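Page header: ASSEMBLY MODEL / two components / 857 residues total.
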Amino acid sequence: MGRQLKFNIFRFNPQNPESVPHMESFSLDETDSMTLFIALNRIREEQDGSLQFDFCCRAGICGSCAMVINGRPGLACHTKTKDLDPEITLTPLPVFKLVGDLSVDTGTWFRSMYNKVESWIHTDKEFDQSAIEDPMENDIAESIYELDRCIECGCCVAACGTARLRDDFMGATALNRLGRFIIDPRDKRSDREYFDVIGSDEGIFGCMGLLACEDVCPKNLPLMNQLSYLRRKMGIVAIKQMFTK
Amino acid sequence: MQTIYKDVLIIGAGLAGERAAAEAAGAGLTAVCLSIVPARRSHSAAAMGGMQAALANSVMGEGDSTDVHFADTVKGSDWGCDQEVARLFADTAPVEMRCLCDWGVPWNRVVPGKSKYFKGGKQFDKEEKEEKRGLITARNFGGTAKWRTCYVSDGTGHSVLYTMDNRCAQLGVEVHDKVEAIAFIQDGETCYGAIARSLRSGELIAYVSKATMVASGGFGKIYKASTNAVICDGGVHGAVLDTGVVPLGNMEAVQFHPTGIVPTDILVTEGCRGDGGTLLDVNEERFMHIYEPDKAELASRDVVARWMTYHMREGKGVPSPYGEHLWLDIRHLGEKHITGKLREVYEICTSFLGVDPIHQLIPVRPTQHYSMGGVRTNKDGAAYGLKGLFAAGEASCWDMHGFNRLGGNSLAETVVAGGIVGRKIVEFLETYECSIPTAVISQTAAKQQQRISDIVSGKNGNENVYRIREAMQDALDKGAHVFRTEEGLTKCINTLQKTLQRAREVGLQTDGCGASPELSAALKIEGQVKLALCVAYGALQRKESRGSHNREDYPARNDRDWLTRTLAYWKNPDDDLPTLEYEDATPSYEIPPGDRGYGKMQIISADSKEDS
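Prediction written out in full:
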């Protein structure tokens, strides 16, 4: 304890014509159990009220506070300063549009992603108020939830080589999202329909296999397994299509 | 200034707001949700436990019905709730869970056969029935007679919110995120929408609508230690008070949870104590058995929180850079139990504290958790005082929770009330036309623009918003916390009145350019201090103890004089106290006031009124 921490933080306010992107340093005395959530709030409240960053649940549940911490995308809320060197460098996530300083616009990116993959149950069934629910095996329900756990923090997209190269790449999070619907018996889309969404370089075939997505996922989602599963499944659809043409 | 017209404007994109938006969009209306954060980051996502609904599929839920759920809810509320609303809620909850099921929520399901469960540290067997295979199952929660809480592993809120946001996307509901409502467009009789500020550019936007709904969640962040997300700051409640005509109901009813961790106030589950964890003081000695010889750590939430606070006041708290706390000890439960049955607790401790609970003590203190009070509405969700204004979810005082809410009832309320109020808004709009006075829009916008320029230019003064907020939080933490007394509340109110004066003189330390977070904080600070005064002043006037409201100087529940709901108005913006009015707690009784069956307490009967 008693360390003095030095924070190098990326600063840029696109709303201010005089602002130019630069790094700025702040010093702080470390306290017990200090996280980047505590540190950044102290810097804003005690040193510079204009510093922009996002926190919401501050408990690793909502995904708001993803940023690049010493070169690696991660959640600031559960990053403890005692696990870092006394000099800490914070920059905003790449790929997403910058709002200001450490704050980026993940909302627009993700909304466009789920419109693209039509992230909802496709069915003709109308809800009947007087009927009991359709039964489902608990194992299936649990496996859907295992993929549904993504918090849309954007770390996997920020760490993705392909996403850095091309704007239209959907990224591991979109493939994971679609995987959730493929195993859901309530969704009536055919494999062919799924292929139309992800069977291209924007989807499964764009991945270069660098594995960073899974490395940085704060929820430890099986993103690479999911991708290889979809590639195999979609590969079969592609071959079938060749023969039916 | 951009002006956006919609049939329905919903402030908040959590579960209550999006559920109502889905109803509106499903009926062919245009709906937009405003949200400070992307919709899926709303605080609804943080609820892990589950949603109560009497489906009675699990064997431990056999014999459950909406009547039993209703009775549990009324008892839980300490007879402070509106019983018509509690009935409506209990009856609708099962239908709503099934609807969510159709929309895609992966509810955990009944698995037939034998399994084990724990109760009071002991192991029991149960056997689920084959004919219920695959139906929505339930888990056990405090204060309920049956297993009734539907859940999705440890991420119920997350899963339901994602499903709901999917549904909204499918129906074409727009969510404008990084947008914050700062004032209502209203003429004292009718609400026509809201003026909002973009948290991307700092620009003002007018949202004009025939119906406006407040679904902005709780306001726990007016307290220093709160389990609430940082966005639950009461900004919209401040704007509601500012209308002068819409009251907030039962603001003194604030729930505290015994085990928020220090310093970040994240909740660790009651299960720690349920499974045998103990509370220790600065000397690492147990103390709960001194105060509650029978139940010790297993007494109810409000009781444990009360004694913990008392013990710290006696000088037995552990000092830390973040204030005093106590210890939660689960070391004796062993590694297998902690990393298995209490996995989530283990992860919170290791990820956020750097504490290994297998070998180390967990720092905890009673922490603000839930706001039973909020925008007072009738059973249709229509706010008192302004036509066209509605509210639902934690933001509202629809009032099925009264003075204490049960676990699993808050998350269920978001979707049940969102659905009911959404349908009522659709019904309302079928016959409702209004002419929109554009002068009211431009005057409201001009007033807000002026307010912003005054703060930025330092015209009102240069009080630091963060120091004002600290003063407000300190005052509430000292005087309007778990324990309340006339002396403590009076002191708290005096401090808050001085703080209100400072809030009116707030200025910025920085330039306030663009999406300035300091300006956001400054714009809502006066409203927050007013909310704090509603809590403290309501608590001072309520001379009884009911549910979460504990007056040391009036320990009895007084049904004779206080079977009422407090309505707090801020009639004149320059006032330094709210105007309080009272109404009956419920228009009718299905269950007359009686003993809750837990938490021993003296009751002054309503019948004694005739005698006196």
